[in-house]
Design brief:
- With 393 residues, the chain is an alpha/beta fold.
- Among the domains are: 142 residues, Rossmann fold (3-Layer(aba) Sandwich), CATH 3.40.50.720; 87 residues, no CATH class.
- It is built from 11 helices and 16 strands.
- The strands form 4 sheets. Strands 7-6-12-13-14-11-15 form a 7-stranded mixed sheet. The chain has a 5-stranded parallel sheet with strand order 9-2-1-10-16, covered by helices on one side.
- Helix 1 crosses helix 11 and helix 4 crosses helix 5.
- The longest helix is centred in the middle third of the chain and has 26 residues.
- The two termini are 16 Å apart.
- The structure holds flavin-adenine dinucleotide (FAD) and uridine-5'-diphosphate.
- Flavin-adenine dinucleotide binds next to helix 1, helix 10 and helix 11.
- Belongs to the UDP-galactopyranose/dTDP-fucopyranose mutase family.
- Its cofactor is FAD.
- Keywords: FAD, Flavoprotein, Isomerase.
């Protein structure tokens, strides 16, 4: 079966799809994609809910944003984007505040009318001795950014629920993603471009691989030796791009990397709109879920196709992933980073296997970063493997 295949890709997520598209476009390669799930798109997959007409992001809310002209141009070859702008609110002690923490949040919290300068001075004072340091962990970073009172209200418990790891053990980088602003700008992302795919995520992904040279086998696990297209039958014969968990590839021989997973609880309402926004965070420890997502509200431009009397909300519960759970977010403590470095060494010794994507490189990547790294990996590592393979034949 491998005779007519130039490249095997394990995983039909954005990394795998981007590499497949590039291999066909630049090398005319014949690509076989193996995917253990029953659909393409990886964690960015979505489907339309019959009752409400909402586009449900099956593995949690996905918002596309990027500042890279290369990535923006690339994705626009396959889909148009809506003018959706991401905004998030948070509930704390029975009150709703805007996020990311901005002058509106600060003034509401302190019942004040500070100017940007006054607010900055106040926060600097509250950040105390950490204000001018370069904190390495999330706890100190949070306090240095917004001061202790706001940190304890909006970050501490939310992060505790989400990561179930002491914030003092978590890398500061996690909340670099969450800026603080001394004006009323409450756009969640700072990127140049953002939006949602006009015809949905899955249509976008189908267009990326709409070519007869790309063959996708769903429900096919690369490690399942009872099916013919497994690791032992493939590695060494055809170049492989592997986007599953890196520790799984090496049979967990050095130990297991830690991941966080998310469970979703679906709640349906006989209402047009339940939250009044797409995403509501819950900052306090007494609400067990971190956030609630109302998918209809991501696509207000589709009101005519949506049910005006019903809506669906997903509540997100976060916990440590066990083996067999979906690994969603790398926990990335120092122990994990050291372990990953050892797996990365082993990966580098596999001459015909390229490891990529969130799972394959144990990185907290957003979609645009996965696409950028896939374009790069194609150009720098995969193109030459395809060339070498051609010469052999
Ligand atoms: P994945 O999408 O995980 O794809 C890997 C694929 O490999 C999967 O389909 C898996 O089934 C398959 N696979 C694994 N092992 C095997 C095997 N042994 N055999 C066959 N197939 C296998 N990004 C954003 O830009 N914006 C967001 O708002 C955003 N929100 C997110 C929210 C959540 C809850 C999560 C989990 C992620 C979010 N992301 C977001 C990140 C985004 O999902 C990733 O950046 C992107 O989907 C990763 O693509 P990937 O190809 O690396 O991995
Ligand atoms: N965060 C927080 N309170 C919030 C929202 C975010 O403390 O209301 C912190 C939390 O540690 C989280 C990080 O900021 O892990 C990044 O948040 P974001 O919503 O960007 O992450 P996502 O979970 O969507 O990847």
């Amino acid at each position: 079966e491998l005779e007519n295949v130039d490249l095997v890709i394990v995983g039909a997520g954005l990394f795998g799809l981007t590499v497949a598209q590039q291999a066909v476009e630049h090398a005319g390669a014949r690509v076989l994609i193996l995917e253990s799930r029953d659909h393409i798109g990886g964690n960015a997959y979505s489907y339309i809910d019959k009752e409400t007409g909402a586009e449900i992001h099956k593995y949690g809310a996905h918002l596309f944003h990027t500042s890279s002209p290369v990535v923006w141009e690339y994705v626009n070859r396959f889909t148009k984007f809506t003018n959706y702008v991401h905004r998030v609110y948070t509930t704390h002690r029975g009150e709703v505040f805007p996020l990311p923490i901005n002058l509106g949040t600060i003034n509401q919290f302190f019942h004040a009318h500070y100017t940007p300068q006054e607010a900055e001075a106040l926060i600097r004072e509250q950040a105390g001795e950490l204000a001018s340091s370069d904190p390495q962990n999330l706890n100190d970073k949070g306090i240095s950014l917004i001061g202790r009172p706001l940190y304890e209200a909006f970050i501490k418990n939310y992060t505790g629920k989400q990561w179930q790891t002491d914030p003092a053990e978590l890398p500061a980088g996690i909340i670099n993603r969450l800026p603080v602003r001394f004006n009323y700008d409450n756009r969640y992302f700072k990127d140049t471009w953002e939006g949602l795919p006009e015809d949905g995520y899955t249509t976008w992904f189908e267009r990326m691989i709409d070519d007869p040279r790309i063959d996708v086998r769903l429900n096919t696990d690369f490690f399942d030796t009872t099916q013919p297209l497994n690791r032992d039958a493939i590695v060494g014969k055809v170049p492989v791009v592997y986007t599953g968990p890196v520790d799984r590839y090496f049979d967990y021989s050095l130990g297991e990397l830690k991941w966080r997973t998310v469970d979703f609880e679906e709640v349906r309402y006989d209402e047009a709109d339940h939250l009044g926004c797409p995403v509501m965070n819950f900052a306090d420890a007494d609400v067990p879920y971190t956030r609630a997502i109302e998918f209809k509200n991501f696509n207000p431009e589709r009101r005519a196709q949506q049910n005006a009397n019903k809506t669906v909300v997903w509540r997100e519960y976060s916990r440590t992933a066990e083996r067999g759970d979906e690994p969603y977010y790398p926990v990335n403590t120092q122990t994990d980073k050291d372990l990953y470095a050892r797996y990365a060494d082993s990966a580098a010794q596999q001459p015909s296997v390229v490891f990529g994507g969130r799972l394959g490189t144990y990185k907290y990547y957003d979609m645009h970063q996965v696409i950028a790294t896939a374009l790069n990996a194609y150009e720098h590592d995969i193109a030459s493997l395809l060339g070498a393979n051609e010469e052999r034949q």
